[in-house]
Every structure is written in structure tokens, then in C-alpha cells.
Design goal:
It is a single chain. The chain has 258 residues and is mainly α. The protein is built from eight helices and no strands.
């Protein structure tokens, strides 16, 4: 049923997806109720998602769309799909409202930190699914190209694992749950590859992939602005949260230099 190139491509996608769990190992070095570390982790996750969106997903979307459209049309379409992603995330957010800060009893805002972990899981899974498709297509056509892409994706999946694991761990105190949700976000990668092989191959082209990458970038940007940055600054460690956001932004491009 599976040819040698397809098996190779699926294995590469599975390796890339499993790298997400490596990032989750940070929870074994974290202590519960360490608000400084939580602020740093959430800020770091915000920087990672911003960098992935603006330096990876959106440029890739424009490049793919340029292969199917004129340059001007590609820019307009990529921005349109970006806005579609923002609106989609905003629409979903309407059904999951925030718990506001209560000045009378001093309770913290975003008490539902678990929710932050869930939306991070969803965003990274949405990001990993088309990455799995792209990794499969590259590995299927060219082994060397597939290996290089899988390596690059593996490296930047590691900090993404941190982005999922830390909020879930601090919300629940459960390493098991943190690993579970991190694994779910990583599984989207081989699932995307398997879907590409079984179902999506006839429908995948530059336009479809470009649109998906741009929309996912919009979803990630919304989550960063609405969830991660406010959550990272709610514990009184604003400067640490800010610098960790910058660190996340700077780290992701370096994963492509290896």
C-alpha cells in the first residue's frame, strides 16, 4: 500500500512532530507556583508564535501564493487569508469569554490559565498540520530536501512544545496532562502527512497551502495578542515577560540556520 518514498516522508513527518515533546521536558525542571517562571514561559511562547507567524508562516504563504498568482494578487490574498485567520480566532473567542480581574478580592485575571494552554495547543496543532503536509510532499519528492525540512521543523517544534506544556502544567500541576496536550499538538504533524497521502494529494497546490499558512498565522497572532502577552504580564514580572518575548522572537529564526 505504501511505497518507499511515502514511508520515508511519513517517518520524517513523525520525527518532526515528536520533537514537540522534547520542549515539554522543561516541566520536569520547573517548580509549581513559580510565577516568575510562568511569566517568562508565557512571554517566550508569545515570542515564538509571533516569530513563526511573521518570519515563517506569512512569508511562506506569500511565496506559495506567488507561484499561483501574480505578485500583487499574492500579497492581497495572503493579507486576506491572514485577516480570515484573525476573524476566525476572534469568533471562537466569543464563545470562550475571559474571566476579568476582580479588584475587590484581588483575584488574578485569566484565572483560566488552562484555557491559555488549550488555545496554544490548538494554534500549534493548526500550524503543525499544514507543516506535516509540506514535509510529506517534500520528503516524497526528494529525500535530501525532506530530511533538511524535517530537521528545521524539528528544531523549531522544540520551543513550541514549551509554549503548550508550561501553561497546562501551571494550570493543573499535572505533568501527565502537560505531556498529553503537547503530544496532541505534535501529532498534528504526522496526521497532516498521513492526510496528504490518503486524501489531500489531489487537492493540494500552492494556492491552498499558501492560504492555509496565512490563515494559521492570523490565528496565532490573535492568540499572542489576546491571550499570551496579557497572561505573561499579569503576575507582576513585566520586564521578564518582555525580554522573554524578545528571546522567543530571536530564537525561531536561528533554528533555520542549523
Amino acid at each position: 500500500m505504501f511505497s518507499e518514498p511515502s514511508v520515508r516522508a511519513l517517518i520524517l513527518s513523525a520525527i518532526a512532530g515528536s520533537a514537540t515533546l522534547v520542549g515539554a521536558l522543561v516541566i520536569f525542571f520547573a517548580k509549581t507556583k513559580n510565577e516568575r517562571l510562568l511569566s517568562v514561559s508565557l512571554g517566550f511562547a508569545a515570542g515564538i508564535m509571533l516569530s513563526v507567524s511573521f518570519a515563517d508562516l506569512f512569508p511562506t504563504a506569500q511565496a506559495l501564493l506567488s507561484g499561483a498568482l501574480s505578485d500583487k494578487q499574492a500579497v492581497l490574498c495572503s493579507v486576506g487569508f491572514l485577516i480570515l485567520g484573525l476573524l476566525t480566532a476572534s469568533g471562537i473567542d466569543v464563545f470562550v469569554p475571559h474571566e476579568a480581574y476582580d479588584p475587590e478580592n484581588g483575584e488574578m485575571p485569566h484565572k483560566n490559565l488552562f484555557r491559555v494552554g488549550i488555545v496554544s495547543t490548538a494554534a500549534i496543532a493548526l500550524h503543525n498540520f499544514p507543516e506535516g503536509v509540506a514535509t510529506f510532499m517534500a520528503g516524497y519528492k526528494d529525500a535530501a530536501l525532506g530530511i533538511s525540512i524535517a530537521l528545521a521543523i524539528s528544531l523549531h517544534n522544540i520551543p513550541e512544545g514549551i509554549a503548550v506544556a508550561m501553561p497546562v502544567y501551571y494550570a493543573t500541576g499535572s505533568k501527565k496532562l502537560a505531556l498529553k496536550y503537547t503530544m496532541l499538538s505534535g501529532l498534528a504533524e504526522p496526521l497532516g502527512a498521513l492526510s496528504a497521502y490518503l486524501v489531500l494529494r489531489p487537492f493540494i497546490d500552492d494556492f491552498v497551502l499558501g492560504g492555509v499558512f496565512a490563515a494559521v498565522a492570523g490565528i496565532m497572532i490573535y492568540i499572542v495578542v489576546e491571550e499570551l502577552i496579557p497572561s505573561s504580564r499579569q503576575y507582576g514580572h513585566d520586564r521578564e515577560a518582555l525580554w522573554s518575548t524578545f528571546a522567543g522572537i530571536c530564537l525561531m529564526p536561528l533554528t533555520h540556520a542549523v
